[in-house]
Description:
The complex is a heterodimer. By secondary structure, chain A is mainly alpha-helical.
Amino acid sequence: xxxxxxxxxxxxxxxxxxxxxxxxxxxxxxxxxxxxxxxxxxxxxxxxxxxxxxxxxxxxxxxxxxxxxxxxxxxxxxxxxxxxxxxxxxxxxxxxxxxxxxxxxxxxxxxxxxxxxxxxxxxxxxxxxxxxxxxxxxxxxxxxxxxxxxxxxxxxxxxxxxxxxxxxxxxxxxxxxxxxxxxxxxxxxxxxxxxxxxxxxxxxxxxxxxxxxxxxxxxxxxxxxxxxxxxxxxxxxxxxxxxxxxxxxxxxxxxxxxxxxxxxxxxxxxxxxxxxxxxxxxxxxxxxxxxxx
Amino acid sequence: xxxxxxxxxxxxxxxxxxxxxxxxxxxxxxxxxxxxxxxxxxxxxxxxxxxxxxxxxxxxxxxxxxxxxxxxxxxxxxxxxxxxxxxxxxxxxxxxxxxxxxxxxxxxxxxxxxxxxxxxxxxxxxxxxxxxxxxxxxxxxxxxxxxxxxxxxxxxxxxxxxxxxxxxxxxxxxxxxxxxxxxxxxxxxxxxxxxxxxxxxxxxxxxxxxxxxxxxxxxxxxxxxxxxxxxxxxxxxxxxxxxxxxxxxxxxxxxxxxxxxxxxxxxxxxxxx
Lengths: 293, 273
């Protein structure tokens, strides 16, 4: 018990308590309480605001026949697949490979630019993209028109593509940094040998790079799936429209709870999202523990 | 040998150029437009002016929101840093029954419970506690969400301090609290600065929590003020909004690159609330 000498039991409790109280009340409690809220018909206005009834699993059963829920789920899945798995991981990998074994200056420049998109506050990012995609005066359409393309009403005609492109731009930095770090772990002699034999770039990627950084790729995919699933920023760009075409699950929760004041039903959908998060998190923690041992 | 290498270099530049253009364009607009005499939605460089910034400083709502953002962010930073410091010290230096389970619970909940997934119970909790439309509610909610990650980062810093340091102090007759303030604080000042800056940047940028918890316009932080500016009915004042957005973004960028350059600490993603 060599470790016990430092602080007494009382001090341990005293020092831990402020953090534990804050975390239990504002982080853990809401996640558990949401189950109970989801079993009531609580609203923010009217009679049910005062005395909500216990309705059991009614809200949860209703979710299964709610076509707006399926719409939101479908858009969320498209959004995660398009912007996280294809967009961020794909582009992140391309950028990591293109700056691998290149000059430090090139890598720092590329990384700094991509990181900027990642750290600018979300409300500013939303405004930048509203300007960037504006139909008549936005930079993208004006540039396209120089090359003879017609002007596109991005938000109206390609709503899902718009938020997918936006979120790819927003979040590629994490995958790029992780993959860049992963590439550094490959022993240089592997690739140097391949260079001497004159192996093609594709074979080098498939036979040397990919097997060596596989575990990093898994980690990245789980984490960005979890984060992308919990992104609210597209609401600032589109408000969920036009005609619910960009209504991700978080935006659907927001609409139910804060536009229609249906706290009970909103909580039920929240529970579903939290459960999906739980699955992804357990998957991630198990994987990263196995990697360590 | 040389030619294929040069060729691959040229090819990689050809692929890189459009990707970088895609990343740069929206950011370039943010850097150029605030200084433009006739600001528009297109990146256009005209005679530079500071007019737009002057209009920000004349706008009472804008200035007031800056004040609110400072109150919220500084509040969160103080709360998180102090609580995390105590907790990380204990978790790093004291083994007690259930510590590993506690750590597991913290990791699990901090990754599951995002403000987005839990916005309804978070709102109801603040409603029941009488914290709706109060800055304190925003501060406590954001702090609770960021504490676990901050504790883990600080614990890592503490774990790297050799035990012989505190053993020496113990022989000198220092109390545990003295050891914490005299040995741990100075030796982990790097970690504390990293935590403080990352927490500041995150709470400064947070949109959703004040968006659902605050009602009164005079209490809005900058994130909500900018949102109301550009969603307002009528013609938005592009010059003023972009200047305001740049002033709001600058501290976040400065802090991030300070942390990265000075401390080589770039894993910002893990601390996202």
